[in-house]
Task: structure prediction
Amino acid sequence: MNFSEVFKLSSLLCKFSPDGKYLASCVQYRLVVRDANTLQICQLYTCLDQIQHVEWSADSLFILCALYKRGLVQVWSLEQPEWHCKIDEGSAGLVASCWSPDGRHILNTTEFHLRITVWSLCTKSVSYIKYPKACQQGITFTRDGRYLALAERRDCKDYVSILVCSDWQLLRHFDTDTQDLAGIEWAPNGCVLAAWDSCLEYKILLYSLDGRLLSTFCAYEWSLGIKSVAWSPSSQFLAVGSYDGKVRILNHVTWKMITEFGHPATINNPKIVVYKEAEKSPPLVLGRLAFPPPRAAAGPLSSTESKYEVASVPVSLQTLKPAPDRANPRIGIGAMAFSPDSCFLATRSDSVPTAVWIWDIQKLRLLAALEQLSAVRCFQWDPRQARLAICTGGSKVYLWSPAGCVSVQVPGEDFKCLYYKTESKGSGPRRSCEAAFRCGQAPASESRPC
Amino acid sequence: MGDWMTVTDPGLSSESKYISQYTSETKMSPSSLYSQQVLCSSIPLSKNVHSFFSAFCTEENIEQSISYLDQELTTFGFPSLYEESKGKETKRELNIVAVLNCMNELLVLQRKNLLAQENVETQNLKLGSDMDHLQNCYAKLKEQLETSRREMIGLQERDRQLQCKNRNLHQLLKNEKDEVQKLQNIIASRATQYNHDMKRKEREYNKLKERLHQLVMNKKDKKIAMEVLNYVGRADGKRGSWRTGKTEASFFLRNEDEMYKILLNDYEYRQKQILMENAELKKVLQQMKKEMISLLSPQKQKPRERADDSTGTVISDIEEDAGELSRESMWDLSCETVREQLTNSIRKQWRILKSHVEKLDNQVSKVHVEGFNDEDVISRQDHEQETEKLELEIQQCKEMIKTQQQLLQQQLATACDDDTTSLLRDCYLLEEKERLKEEWSLFKEQKKNFEKERRSFTEAAIRLGLERKAFEEERASWLKQQFLNMTTFDHQNSENVKLLSAFSGNFCQTRSCVSEHSSISVLNTTPEESKPNQVGRECTNQKWSVASRPDSQEGGYSGRSSTYANSHVEKDDLP
Result:
């Protein structure tokens, strides 16, 4: 793995274009677009205020910069640097902005979720969608960009509207049997929509594209319910992570549960490989030890090397005791991700924050567990192969593949990996861009693509 | 009983007899004397006894004693000692016969009595010990009774306590249940209240939202606008079309059509997949069936011979089924009849197989039980040896694996910074590279050596040439002197000079020839030198080929040697 030099970055805004050719990053009110191969600056745009959100259009031709504080959206074209577009939401305010899949419409959500405004870049038309629901994941587009599903709330009931993206016409509108709809997500094949209730009730509903209810699933009652939902890229499985620390896998034929993955704190099965991150500090030279230690050396992570050790079973993982008197307890499955080939599922249980579990979907069993020294911030699969990258907020990026595990030290002083992104589409057959981003404690943050 | 037995000590009993003897001495009544006499008769007569008897009857009181005895005896029912008095007031005569009879009878009686007494004594003792024993038993049983009573009381107490506890627990459970019910009710009521409040709040919120919407949106907010330099074309190249009332319906229909098309495509795709899966499964079933039939058919003669009717018929059925189902067309039909047939036949065969396996199992167990004594012992020894051998092998393998792992880890530790998979590949490449480098350096060294040798050869040749030259010069000078000594004429001098020049020319020629020769010899040496090295490598090559495939050894060797010969020939041609 190679590392580039360090780039400045503010509020973790850095995105690869969908075609993988460009890298957009924001520094305060400036938007910098670089060539992803050479990392040379291609374009530099200046916005009116600090950028709070950046998004590439699906065809990688336009970049949207949202300035929520001002209620403004600025759009830049990569082909024509002089072209510009500014959308002002005025006093209605702006809380979210996103592209439609065709890359010619922008969906702006106003403050208090009063409405969603659809601005077109092709015509002067403006469409409004009323009653959008303020929830975890209220807007979802199908992969092919044909349909938009939108969660709505009218008269204290939840509805889902399916709109055709080409002309923003309503295709289907149906109410969902939920107390408080928390999220909706299309299956990758765009034929099934999963809708789940808020954490107070365990309920997941599956709707066909034409609005028919295919199935409902409820694992248990009374206690806190669903925390995360993930479709497998093959649309074959739906993984539902819940507050009881289990992942339930539903199949696409009967929509019944195939299996249940518990996340026990101790691993006894000798077939499971448990990788434990072990730190070894370099030998200390007494005479050279400065007092007080310099800042770079102060951080224990920057000065020590770490490597993985295969722990022998039984292994007991470090668990957090959840505080019962606080909202949003640190329990349950907080994050899940299927590998691009649908063969593996990576999960993180919030009560065991230092561990990542990797499940074999073909055999429906636990394959490996990684225990880090610090809490796992995020993980992401390589879009081309079964390789998982993990960030813990330290100066290292951890990679897992079926062959093994490595920890990669990111060079540079006081560099903390908080996010790790990898993207590849089109262009060369063997090209992937990975970037780790530094946290924004200091005013100027850095990104490090490689 | 044992205790009782020890009590009858002979010494002790005799002692007691002496004591009784002693006491009888003190008492002087005739009745007691008699009894004493009876008691002591068993003891052999001693002086003591004689003296005692003499003391009872003296010379003076014979009459008295006789009358006393007579009285006594008559009272005991013996005939009188005196003769029957025929006349009144006549002195009664002592009847000796009667006395003797009486004495005899008394003696007999005494003996009897003694015997009876003995019996009674033993019985007494027996009874006494029995009594003791029974008393002991009684005491013991009493104790037992007492303890069991106590135990019973304890158990009853415990039972009572447990029951009490149970009652308490029941009560607690009931309370808890009530509590749970209460809490559930509370939760439910709170939930409904919460939902109600939420709804109310949401309504309010909606109203507010509506109001805000009106306020914000209907004021013709000048700010809400989009500034665009120029509108861009659509991604698909089409022009944007405006919706009008007329086209709306058609748009909607088109959208519906598209949606259903997508759904249909998805369903078709899934159906195709399911069909494929079905076909695969059917194939597997068919294969299984065929294998089952082939497995079961050699066995079918046996049951027929044994007139085992049930399995025989089933097998014949199977054969028929197999005949039917082997037709490929049947497999493509997915109608229910075929499925039923298939499942039925498979089930039948499975049953047969199962019974067969069970039978085999039984046989095996029987054989195991029967033939356990002789053959098995030997095989077990063999087994043990084999297992030992295998264990040894496993140990060796483990060690090997361990060392390999260590090596691998070392490699990984040295270069763990890189990507996982590419790293390994790189590692291998690096290793190879390193090996090649080593080889390269070796070659270089060899080359250097050759160069050195060559240089030394040339140097030697040059030295030789120089020596030759010196020799030539010496010879020339010698010839010159010789010549000068021989000739004194001046005119001959000029000729001499000519000759000398001719000599010198000749010398030059020879020198160049020498240098040529030396260079050739040097060049010739190089292949000669490199030859053994090459041969050695060939040998290694040969070895390698042997190791890899022993069958193709001859061909590979001959081919290699021929090529080597060719190359050698070429090399020979080169200089």
User: Anything to note?
Assistant: Strands of chain B lie at 225-228. Residues 1-47, 302-316, 494-575 of chain B have pLDDT under 50 and may be disordered. Residues 67 and 81 of chain B are 8 Å apart (CA to CA). The first strand of chain B starts at residue 225 and ends at 228.
